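[step 3/7] fold_predict: job queued, chain A
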Amino acid sequence: MIVDFKSLNKNSRIWIFQSVTLIDDCIVEIIKKNLTLFLSEWKSHQNNVKSSFEIRSNTFIIIAADESNLVSGCSIDGLVNFIKELEKLYDLQLLDNFHIKFIKNEEISTLHLNEFKSLAKKLKSDQKLIVFNNLINNIEELENNWKVDIRNSWHKRFLT
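[step 4/7] structure written:
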């Protein structure tokens, strides 16, 4: 059952899938329709999952699910398979963990993990680098800990 994103509880679980490249506006609109259909039918333990989504900056697909009906196992597999299908249909990379998104000159930039490690090692102690921490777990963290300085994220391990 799809609902308005803002109506979900702050503890609602989230999954963030980032595209390595920008998603074209017309493809974003098609993906929104596909997501609406998928989430309208999404079930966990035979019950509808109260869920929603947002697509931010033509890059991040954010899925949220109310945890009152525990989302696990097969329902998560179904979500991942749906994302894999989007990748195939629209020639996207949404499950790639080897690219890091960060903000440079007020724009979203992308580097391969190895290149990002080099960038992080050169960062001076007084320089800020805002990264997207896609490992957050819920809407509360999305609002407060998604776009953070590298020193407040798992990315800090790449600093010297």
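[step 5/7] annotate
Residues 44 and 73 are 9 Å apart (CA to CA).
The first strand starts at residue 13 and ends at 18.
exit 0
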